[in-house]
Amino acid sequence: MMKIAYTMAHGRGELDLLLSDLAARLEARGLTARGIVQTNTECGSYHGCDMDVRVLPDGPIIRISQNLGKEAKGCRLDPDAMASAVTAVGQSMQADFDVFLLNKFGKQEAEGRGFRDLLAEALEKGATVIAGTNPLNAEVFEEFAGGMATNVPADIDALLAWYDQVNEEG
Length: 170
What we know:
Layout: E1 4-7, H1 14-28, E2 33-42, E3 49-56, E4 61-63, H2 79-92, E5 99-102, H3 107-110, H4 116-124, E6 128-132, H5 135-144, E7 150-151, H6 156-166
Parallel strand pairs: 1-6, 1-7, 2-5, 5-6
Antiparallel strand pairs: 2-3, 3-4
């Protein structure tokens, strides 16, 4: 059985905080997590926030956004930094782990890039996979998971309960 779920939160930065909290709670239970969680640094209204990801379980922290200037409207994701994060996570997956967390199944993954191959590898290794996404990419995530993904409410207790349910010894 594939153990894969996704969650969607609507407030700005809400999903990042939720998945960071989830990583901390799972690690506190003695579980080993791989993947990334995002931490944003507010930097004034001129261009939103800097986007940093922490490679689980203990770093490094990689800035995945680029400052395109205050007039810029395009995507601020730095593709080279994202590739570095993917490489770092791939290397960390050589060791055993229990759970794979992805802060956002986004445009890169929807187009077959980013963390998509590592998500598949984590599932192949029997890990529990939990990803954040948005309504725009949820359908693509469902397709990726072959219809096996569970949509879990963006709530720490709901996520922990789902994790416990799919990982019951039985």
